[in-house]
Amino acid sequence: MISSQHMSNTPITTTTGKKVLVSGIKSTGRPHIGNYFGAMKQYVEMQHEYDTRIFIADLHSLTSVQNGSELAQATLDLAIDYIAIGLDPEKVTIFKQSDLPEVTELGWIFNCITTMPYLMRAHSFKDAEAKNKEINVGVFDYPMLMAADILIHNADIVPVGKDQKQHVEFARDTAEKFNRIFRGDGKSCEPENALFKLPDVHIIESVETVPGIDGQKMSKSYNNHIPLFSTDEELKKLVMSIVTDSNGGKPMNVYNMHKLFRDETYLEKLYTKNEGKYKILKEALLEDMIAFIKPLREKREQIAKDPDKVRNILARNGALMREKTHALMYEVRKATGLIV
Ligand code: ADP
Ligand code: TRP
Q1: What are 59-82's pLDDT values in tens digits?
Q2: Is 20 in the pocket of ligand 2 (CB under 6 A)?
């Protein structure tokens, strides 16, 4: 009997003829304004130009969330969030990483051509080590699963925040290495024989690192974040607790957050006029933030009323992604000797 693997020899192109954009976020809690301005907003802006595939990195989440019901809820919530920020579920493929289980297969193959010293250079691993965290193998291997997430789609572009730049570079290295080993002579690979494209990272310079309420990089893991869908009360509490430097001039932490919501010409005037008046400036930031977040939150509330609709979108798109990546996985298995 011929297995389904052997039946597909469809060329690896997209039916839309558009370039492929891939990105994802872990479902480890509520997304925050750093996630939004650093990454999610770009997905929305670029969604029509590309064949856009945005996933919820639930397998990556397992490196830190180890409670089944919590993870399932956070994953569904993030799917709702994606739609609420303006990703069009009819145009963008929103899916769950674990619904494309071939990424773990591809990740394993990448593990076998990657050395431990190479992975020890990853910032994510070094950070965990510096904090004396007990590091699980999933954290150590994180970049290889991420490389598989990207390369399985033969992505052209990967929009992320600055902290993920190195991971995308690892994906490029891995693509090049696979091509060289399995489609070349070990030293190089003729361009026409390459299986994987080298994906480009896309980072918006002006918002490369959004600060948190303590001035450090905003991150769920530092607990200094402002959730994107916060209530007005939550926003008030968080904005008023922003740590300001006390030199009496322009409070840079407040300003850096404020410039995400307002143009800088307006802000320069506002901050000059209210020099040293931190409370007034924080209140102005709060007002602008509420004006931005409230409509998003209300849209989210509407979408959340029908979670089954969202579950159906995820299920349908998971199946679609398996179908679309099938031809490439066939080539991977053939090149590596997994098909006899
Ligand atoms: P967190 O650090 O809060 O756990 P994630 O690792 O889930 O965030 O990041 C999801 C996306 O958001 C990534 O593309 C990441 O680069 C981006 N991102 C996260 N924090 C920030 C930030 N403070 N500024 C800009 N982009 C960010
Ligand atoms: N590592 C990313 C983060 O922490 C999430 C992620 C997993 C991702 N796989 C990816 C992002 C592939 C872009 C492409 O935010």
Answers
A1: 999 999 999 999 999 999 999 999
A2: no
Residue nearest to atom 4 of ligand 1 (CA): 220
Element (H, E) at 59: helix 58-61
Please check whether the domain covering 4-208+307-336 is classified as CATH 3.40.50.620: yes
Number of other residues whose CB lies within 10 A of the CB of residue 241: 11
Ligand 2 atom nearest the C-alpha of 22 is: 14
Reported as type and span, the H/E element at residue 3 is none
Q: Residue 35: pLDDT above 80?
A: yes
Q: Residue 20: what residue type?
A: V
Contact 128, 139 (CB under 8 A): yes
CB 86 within 8 A of CB 46: no
Cα–Cα distance for residue pair 218/136, rounded to 1 Å: 24
Tens of pLDDT, residues 299-332: 999 999 999 999 999 999 999 999 999 999 999 9
How close is the Cα of 60 to the center of ligand 2, in Å?
8
DSSP assignment of 31-47? -BHHHIIIIIHHHHHHT
60 lines ligand 1 (CB under 6 A): no
Which class would CATH give 220-302?
mainly alpha
- C-beta separation of 34 from 164 below 8 A: no
* Reported pTM: 0.93
- Which pLDDT value is given to residue 14? 57
Domain boundaries, the chain: 4-208+307-336, 220-302
Decide: 168 in ligand 2 pocket, CB within 6 A.
no
Distance 23 CA to ligand 2 centre (A): 6
CA–centroid distance, 158 to ligand 1, in Å, is: 14
**167 CA from centroid of ligand 1 (Å):** 13
226 lines ligand 1 (CB under 6 A): no
